[in-house]
């Protein structure tokens, strides 16, 4: 059981390291606004997260059983600590990516407002009495 558990923990550490790499790549894609590559990466990340969850569901009962029988071997403890450290890094990267997405949305909202202001100024005209009036002066251009 120890050997199997150790191999499963080793695989989980590899999975979490892959997730960390994906999160780093995700931040780059968010900042470069490469939507197509980002969607592909998100699908890969979803599959990896599913694999991580399934392996966790397999490992946890074994760990609980082993802990009840005797103290965990040092190698298993080290693997658990390594996995926890990687998980913490992944959570931090996820928070950073979330902030990057929110900032991007704020910038888009600001840009949208600026464009609306410009459009409103372009459509501002004056009537015969010199009062401001919305709408275009002159005939529209048709192409």
How is this fold's topology laid out?
Elements: H1 2-32, H2 35-69, H3 74-122, E1 124-126, E2 132-134
Antiparallel strand pairs: 1-2
Helix pairs in contact: 1-2, 1-3
Q: What is this entry, summarized?
A:
With 143 residues, the protein is mostly helical. 80% of the residues lie in helices and 4% in strands.
Q: Would you kindly provide a written description of the structure presented here, covering whatever features stand out?
A:
The chain is mainly alpha-helical and 143 residues long. It has a single domain (2-125), classed as Methane Monooxygenase Hydroxylase, Chain G, domain 1 (Up-down Bundle), CATH 1.20.58. It has helices spanning 2-32, 35-69, 74-122, and strands spanning 124-126, 132-134. The protein has a two-stranded antiparallel ribbon. Helix 1 (2-32) runs antiparallel to helix 2 (35-69) and helix 1 (2-32) packs parallel to helix 3. The longest helix is centred in the last third of the chain and has 49 residues, at 74-122. The radius of gyration is 27 Å and the shape is rod-shaped. The model has no long low-confidence stretch (mean pLDDT 83).
């Amino acid at each position: 059981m120890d050997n199997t558990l150790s191999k499963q923990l080793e695989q989980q550490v590899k999975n979490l390291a892959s997730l960390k790499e994906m999160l780093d790549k995700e931040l780059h894609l968010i900042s470069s606004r490469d939507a197509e590559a980002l969607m592909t990466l998100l699908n890969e990340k979803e599959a990896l997260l599913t694999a991580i969850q399934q392996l966790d569901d397999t490992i946890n009962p074994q760990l609980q059983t082993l802990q009840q029988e005797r103290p965990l071997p040092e190698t298993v403890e080290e693997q658990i600590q390594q996995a926890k450290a990687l998980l913490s890094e992944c959570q931090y990267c996820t928070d950073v990516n979330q902030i990057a997405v929110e900032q991007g949305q704020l910038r888009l909202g600001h840009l949208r407002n600026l464009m609306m202001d410009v459009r409103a100024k372009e459509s501002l005209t004056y009537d015969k009495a010199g009062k401001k009036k919305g709408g275009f002066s002159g005939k529209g251009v048709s192409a």
